[in-house]
Amino acid sequence: MLSRTTMATLMSSKQTSVNVTASKIKHKNLNTSSFFKVSLKTNNKALALGLQAQKERSRQLEMEVVHLQKQVKALCFDLATKNYKHRKLLLIFKSLHSDTLQHLEMAADLLHDSPHSSGASSDRTGDAVAPRTESTGGLF
Asked: Measured on CA atoms in the order 67, 72, 73, 75, is the torsion positive or negative?
C-alpha cells in the first residue's frame, strides 16, 4: 500500500484543497454579504431621499390648498359685497323711477290746470299727455 509519507502528503494536500475551498466560500459569502449590505444601504438612502421629497411636495400642496382656500373666501366676500351693492343700486333706481314718474305727473297736473290757457293753446294742451291715474308702485 501507500507509505505513510505518501499518505501524509495526500492528506495534507487534501486538507489544503479543502481549506482553500472553504476560504473561497467564506470570501464569496463575505463579498456577497458585503454587496447586500452596500445594496441595502444605497436602497435605504434612496428611500429616505424619496420620502423627504414626498414630504416636501405634500407640504407645498398643503400650502397651496390653504392659499386657494383663502382666495375662495376673498372671492366669496367680493361677490357678496357686489351683490349687496347691486341690490342697493336697484332700490335706488326703482326709487328714482318712482319719484320721476310722480314728479312728471305733478308737472303735468300743473300745466293742465294752468289759468293762462287760451283757446289756441288749449288745443295744444289737448295733445299733451294726460295725467296718469295708475299707481306708481314705488317704495314710498
From this structure: positive
Tens of pLDDT, residue by residue over 22-66, are: 676 666 666 667 777 888 889 999 999 999 999 999 999 999 999
Q: What is the pTM of this model?
A: 0.45
From CA 44, how far away is CA 42, in angstroms rounded?
Answer: 5
SS3 25: helix
Task: Please tell me the distance from the alpha carbon of residue 133 to that of residue 119, in angstroms, as a whole number.
Answer: 26
Residue 106's closest CA among 94, 118, 95, 98? 98
Three cell numbers at 109? Answer: 297736473
Question: Each residue of 63-117: pLDDT tens digit?
Answer: 999 999 999 999 999 999 999 999 999 999 999 999 999 999 999 999 887 666 5
Q: Dihedral sign, CA of 99, 101, 105, 110?
A: positive
Give the type of residue at 55: K
Cβ atoms 109, 132 nearer than 8 A: no
- Cell matching residue 52: 423627504
At 20, phi and psi to the nearest 5? -65, -45
